[in-house]
Design goal:
Elements lengths: L37 H28 L3 E5 L4 E6 L5 E4 L1 H4 L5 E4 L5 E9 L7 E5 L21 E6 L8 E11 L4 E4 L11 E3 L5 E8 L12 E5 L3 H9 L19 E2 L7 E5 L4 E2 L6 E9 L4 E7 L5 E6 L5 E5 L8 E6 L4 E9 L6 E9 L10 E7 L13 E8 L4 E7 L5 E6 L5 E5 L9 E6 L4 E9 L6 E7 L1
Parallel strand pairs: 13-16
Antiparallel strand pairs: 1-2, 1-4, 2-3, 3-6, 4-5, 5-6, 7-8, 7-10, 8-9, 9-12, 10-11, 11-12, 14-22, 15-16, 16-21, 17-20, 17-22, 18-19, 18-21, 23-30, 24-29, 25-28, 25-30, 26-27, 26-29
């Protein structure tokens, strides 16, 4: 099953993998013998010169820009930012700092300083400026000249992917420019945690603010399709901030723009819809979509089906907090989509009726069926334990973990909760084939406990990974699978 992840590139996604080893095989072939090395030396020297020029550009851009790239930490999120004034103005994404809490800035030299949010973007512009307290001589990154970005030019990203690798530098090109949405597409690797960090040109100038990725699989990382807000949108925003006209409170924003969803009842008649070139468009892949909403209750199991003979249907379900709960491409057989899930909370749920392919038009039907809310089902697995020094650690970030297993069946809906008052829990579930099914850091904006609701894709033994969000996590936890 393919997944279309809409999540903005904030940190909190941890890839838990199984390391494998491989044996290198060296083959030999006859070597052309020649007493005249002129041709070899000529080609070798040109290649070396080209390589050196490219390497020198990379090194120069990094050394020039990296001192002004920072980590932006709050109580509830993590991202990156760019210092744009010597007195400590830092440009980042609104979604990195909009949840509230103390904003801490970690400079490239490791200093940790407190900052205040002084302005947010308007009308869905995912930008914010925070001001570091008590600074006056910080390094900065200049803005590129408006309109100077061209498809094919080199692009460089610096940031703190996954909230753990500050100062990471990646290289690519400008792959596409979306003038309508003011976005720059790049294949420079952008991962969760790069949000708010700079996209740079070969002169070390800011050409964009990294904001989102398009990827496959829950918790997936970069597949070479990342998006940055064009620097052309920044000057007017900064002027509003400096003049005190920018909002001081985060503006409501949605990946679906200002489109209002159509309300539909559960267990009502099938809804007929039509995706056309007049429909709303997802910026991540230019596919058409319609929005629906329904009222749900905690513990209620729902089944949503989207069918069509004209398009390849795709469904995405968001919870009351607008976080993704489930998505599906071909779960109903053929190309039809189906989501079956037990709702985690009372509230208004948003459903995205989408096409898998870009700009695909056609008619579809949508059905939403629900059971009555039920009391929590019996626990499949309930464990209390502790992450302690000396236990197994993940090689990716040296965080402690424990592993549990249970038997599941295809189509079974399960909920997994990992709770702790001692550390920030992180939970992941792997299928019988060893592949990641789902993972979670914070179950909601109000808790650091981890929570998952998933429909098991196959019958067999599942592995649940109890993990701490970072290497400092220690203490007791409770794991429940129902």
């Amino acid at each position: 099953m393919n997944f279309k992840l809409l999540t903005l590139a904030v940190s909190g996604i941890l890839t838990v993998g199984v390391a494998t080893s491989a044996t290198a095989v060296v083959t030999t072939s006859p070597v052309r013998q020649s007493t005249d090395l002129t041709e070899f030396n000529s080609v070798h020297s040109q290649g070396a010169i080209a390589q050196n020029v490219e390497e020198q550009t990379n090194i120069r851009v990094y050394e020039k820009a990296s001192p002004a790239v920072v980590t932006v930490d709050t109580d509830k999120s993590n991202g990156s930012g760019t210092i744009i004034s010597p007195d400590g103005m830092v440009l980042t994404n609104a979604h990195v700092v909009s949840a509230g809490g103390t904003v801490n800035i970690i400079l490239s030299d490791g200093r940790k300083l407190v900052a205040d949010v002084i302005g947010f973007g308007e009308e869905g512009l995912d930008l914010a400026v925070v001001k570091i307290r008590g600074q006056n001589n910080l390094p900065t990154i200049p803005l590129a000249r408006p309109g100077s970005v061209k498809v094919g030019q080199q692009a460089f990203a610096i940031g703190n992917p996954f909230g753990q690798f500050q100062g990471t530098f990646t290289v690519g090109i400008v792959s596409r420019i979306d003038q309508q949405r003011g976005l720059i597409q790049t294949d420079a690797a952008i991962n969760p945690g790069n949000s708010g960090g700079p996209l740079l040109n070969s002169s070390g100038e800011l050409i964009g603010v990294n904001t989102s990725i398009f990827t496959r699989g829950r918790g997936g990382g970069s597949i070479g399709i990342g998006f940055a807000i064009s620097a052309d949108k920044i000057p007017a925003f900064l002027t509003a901030v400096r003049e005190g006209r920018a909002p001081r409170v985060a503006q409501a924003r949605s990946p679906f723009g200002n489109k209002s969803p159509q309300k539909v009842p559960l267990n009502g008649p099938a809804v007929s819809g039509l995706l056309t070139d007049k429909s709303s468009v997802l910026p991540t892949d230019n596919s058409f979509f319609d929005l629906y909403s329904f009222e749900g209750k905690a513990g209620q199991q729902i089944t949503i089906e989207m069918k069509s003979q004209e398009i390849d249907p795709y469904l995405i379900l968001l919870g009351p907090n607008q976080r993704e709960i489930a998505q599906d491409d071909d779960g109903a057989g053929s190309k039809d989509a189906r989501i079956t899930v037990r709702l985690p909370a009372d509230g208004t749920y948003t459903l995205v009726a989408n096409s898998y392919q870009a700009r695909q038009s056609g008619a579809y039907t949508l059905e939403l069926k629900a059971s009555a809310p039920t009391a929590p089902s019996r626990a499949i697995l309930q464990e209390e334990g502790a992450l302690v020094a000396g236990g197994p650690v993940l090689p990716s970030d040296n965080s402690l973990y424990r592993e549990y297993t249970f038997e599941g069946r295809s189509g079974q809906a399960v909920t997994i909760s990992l709770e702790s008052t001692d550390f920030d829990p992180y939970v992941a579930i792997f299928g019988p084939n060893g592949r990641l099914v789902a993972e979670n850091d914070d179950g909601s904006d109000s808790t650091k406990n981890a929570f998952l609701t998933v429909t098991l894709p196959a019958t067999g033994r599942y592995r649940v990974i109890v993990n701490a969000y970072d290497a400092s996590g220690r203490g007791r936890y409770t794991l429940t699978v129902r």
